[in-house]
């Protein structure tokens, strides 16, 4: 037997420098998810984008990114993670330059779709590089702690940066800011990152799997996006959900039969990874809804500027960083992951529960700040072991596609969260206005009613988010049953099965 499996366990001397560039790329992708939301009203006005089409600035990115993630993960396994990572960064920078220079609606939407395509190459390659480069348990805990803090807190940083750039420069800089991030990360990765050669999966590409998974995920994400704007009973919405169910079912059947599947079902059926994908997807549903409602509440109800709104999210960022790097990292090698994930999601649920008490005149320091701290601490503590477990026990050749599944669960969770919780909020707002419209007879009373009805809508949706986080906690407690991190996130490269890799952890020297 060749000695290549042993060489894959030798720690890369440049691994910590590599982490800087991987983390920078991850920050760029996560920032982009929220930074554009802040800039959207200004961009819409400048480019003459209609009210009906403005959602496509967000949707074009989400469809390309969510639909192509599994394909991107498989390309990383086939082509090499470093090469895929650098290509994704260069492409993302070019697409961002195109978006910043957009002179019309078509150019903007095309740039956003291209950002999604290259983001789908970049995101799984980044996470799988961590999985194959950090093999010693305590070091991997630190690396995933940093990665988890960025994955969780980067969205809130995007709100601050987006506010600054939109308010003091203009919306185009929310695109241009990606270019230096991407160039620095690509140059650093090219010279610093080294990946084990035996971790490649050189099997032929599963074209039917690519087509079915991409179309199925695009239909699912678009179905939820359409539900938000046109309602759940809209004919196109229903058709999209049915098409998605049929396509994804056909994808599962195909993957069980083909010789070299795009997504080997062994990646999904291992209970720890399955538990991570499910619980993380649910947590993201709750988080995306919260970002949306808290942004609206602070700007519309409380009258905060974009910059002040961004700074108002700082306690959540602080909590996530502490939860990931201090709690999760320190405890990951000592306690079982579910003892971090389940309580983490529960603590976040308690923070969310506090926000169900929102009123028009709620004190930021008295309620919103402590709620955000609890949310951040809980999510940071849970995200950190979840990111590490995403590649728990997989063979190196499957690391890219296993990483892509985490991003897919987050992306689909984000689309579901925005659509589902927005619909619940809108229904509650309408019901409140209908019940109280008769008593609002003066302009001042009508203005108060409008604000109160919005808050009623937000709190109704936040109650659902509380329930979703409790379910995420229960799933983590029941499905995630591996012990404390014992050494290696992926199986060694000599072809042993996932079950062996899980049962017999390889201890790094």
TrEMBL record:
SUPFAM superfamilies the UniProt entry points to: MFS general substrate transporter
GO MF annotation: an example: transmembrane transporter activity
Pfam families, per the entry: MFS_1
Spans traversing the lipid bilayer: 18-40, 55-73, 85-103, 109-132, 144-165, 171-193, 205-224, 236-254, 275-298, 310-327, 339-358, 364-387, 461-480
Membrane topology: Multi-pass membrane protein
Keyword Cell membrane: yes
Swiss-Prot/TrEMBL keywords: Antibiotic resistance, Cell membrane, Membrane, Transmembrane, Transmembrane helix, Transport
Main location per the UniProt record: membrane
CDD domains reported in the protein's UniProt record: MFS_MMR_MDR_like
InterPro entries: EmrB-like, MFS, MFS_dom, MFS_trans_sf, Sugar_transporter_CS
Keyword Membrane: yes
Subcellular localization, as worded in the UniProt entry: Cell membrane
Ranges where the Major facilitator superfamily (MFS) profile domain occurs: 18-485
PROSITE patterns hit by this protein: MFS, SUGAR_TRANSPORT_1
Domain of life, per lineage: Bacteria
GO cellular component, one term: plasma membrane
GO biological process annotation, one example: response to antibiotic
Protein name: Puromycin resistance protein pur8
Organism: Streptomyces silvensis
């Amino acid at each position: 037997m060749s000695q290549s499996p042993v060489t894959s366990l030798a720690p890369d001397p440049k691994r910590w420098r590599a982490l800087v560039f991987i983390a920078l790329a991850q920050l760029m992708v996560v920032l982009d998810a929220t930074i554009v939301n802040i800039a959207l009203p200004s961009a819409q006005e400048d480019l003459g984008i209609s009210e009906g089409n403005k959602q496509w600035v967000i949707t074009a990115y989400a469809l390309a990114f969510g639909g192509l993630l599994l394909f991107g993960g498989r390309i990383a396994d086939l082509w090499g993670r470093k090469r895929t990572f650098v290509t994704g960064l260069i492409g993302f920078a070019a697409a961002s330059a195109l978006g910043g220079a957009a002179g019309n609606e078509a150019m903007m939407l095309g740039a956003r779709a291209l950002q999604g395509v290259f983001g789908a190459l970049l995101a799984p390659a980044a996470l799988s590089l961590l999985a194959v480069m950090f093999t010693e348990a305590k070091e991997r805990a630190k690396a995933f702690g940093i990665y988890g803090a960025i994955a969780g807190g980067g969205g809130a940083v995007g709100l601050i940066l987006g506010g600054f750039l939109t308010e003091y420069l203009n919306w185009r800089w929310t695109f241009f800011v990606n270019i230096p991030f991407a160039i620095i990360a690509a140059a650093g990765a090219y010279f610093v990152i080294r990946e084990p050669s035996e971790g490649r999966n050189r099997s032929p590409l599963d074209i039917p799997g690519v087509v079915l998974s991409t179309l199925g995920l695009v239909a699912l994400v678009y179905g939820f996006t359409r539900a938000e704007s046109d309602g759940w009973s809209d004919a196109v919405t229903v058709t999209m959900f049915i098409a998605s169910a049929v396509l994804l079912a056909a994808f599962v059947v195909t993957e069980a039969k083909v010789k070299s599947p795009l997504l080997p079902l062994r990646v999904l059926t291992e209970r720890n990874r399955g538990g991570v994908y499910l619980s993380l997807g649910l947590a993201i549903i709750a988080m995306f809804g919260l970002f949306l409602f808290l942004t609206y509440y602070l700007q519309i109800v409380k009258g905060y500027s974009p910059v002040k709104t961004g700074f108002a999210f700082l306690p959540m960022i602080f909590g996530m960083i502490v939860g990931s790097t201090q709690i999760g990292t320190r405890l990951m090698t000592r306690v079982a992951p579910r003892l971090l994930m389940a309580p983490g999601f529960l603590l976040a649920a308690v923070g969310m529960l506090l926000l169900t008490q929102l009123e028009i005149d709620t004190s930021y320091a008295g309620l919103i700040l402590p709620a955000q701290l609890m949310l951040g601490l809980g999510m940071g503590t849970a995200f950190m072991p979840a990111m590490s477990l995403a590649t728990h026990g997989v063979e190196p050749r499957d690391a890219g596609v296993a990483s892509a599944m985490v991003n897919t669960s987050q992306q689909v969770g984000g689309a579901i969260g925005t659509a589902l919780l927005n619909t619940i909020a809108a229904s509650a707002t309408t019901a409140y206005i209908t019940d109280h419209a008769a008593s609002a007879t003066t302009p001042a009373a009508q203005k108060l009613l409008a604000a109160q009805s919005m808050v009623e809508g937000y709190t109704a949706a936040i109650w659902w988010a509380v329930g979703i986080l409790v379910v995420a906690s229960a799933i983590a407690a029941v499905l995630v049953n591996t012990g404390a991190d014992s050494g290696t996130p992926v199986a060694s490269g000599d072809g042993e099965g996932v079950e062996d890799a899980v049962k017999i952890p390889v201890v790094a020297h």
